[in-house]
Amino acid sequence: MSDDSSAAIRDQRKDWATEHREMYLGSGGAKGHIMDITAVGGRAFATHCMVKYTGRKSGKVFITPLCYGDIGGEVVIVASKGGADHHPAWYLNIREQAEVEFQVATQAFRATWREPAGAEREKVWAFMVDNFPFYADYQKATDRIIPLVMMQAIAEIPVFRPEDATGIRQF
């Protein structure tokens, strides 16, 4: 998939993504954790977390909602960017940080993160594709290997608030 066609997908989903983020943040996580994403090839009860990170260039704080899976107590997110030929900004930003913060429903955590490799990556990828079938299509659309990020909670923190974000995610 070209970056242009990926941009078209993001433009179509921009309003939904913005509304989703605002609903999740505005409710303290009571709403937005479970969403019906069948319209985009997902499941009716798809799970979403929010990831908070600092921009590597801007120094601004961003909060991005993402689909997630849970494997062995680690929260897994996928840096798909709709099958674009380059990585999403959130992924590039967290690669520059030793820790990341994430929120699942009404609980937020400071966490370490890692990228699985080899047989573990294959197992985690299969799990994520089983839960979110569109990831298989995204991988077919690009030559890059779509990264997986596994986050391990190390401390509970206050839930995210809208005012925590000093930057707005660019779609």
From TrEMBL:
Reaction catalysed by this enzyme: oxidized coenzyme F420-(gamma-L-Glu)(n) + a quinol + H(+) = reduced coenzyme F420-(gamma-L-Glu)(n) + a quinone
Coiled coil (residue ranges): none
UniProt cross-references to Pfam families, sorted A to Z: F420H2_quin_red
Domain of life: Bacteria
Protein family (similarity comment): Belongs to the F420H(2)-dependent quinone reductase family.
Listed name of the protein: Nitroreductase/quinone reductase family protein
Organism: Novosphingobium album (ex Liu et al. 2023)
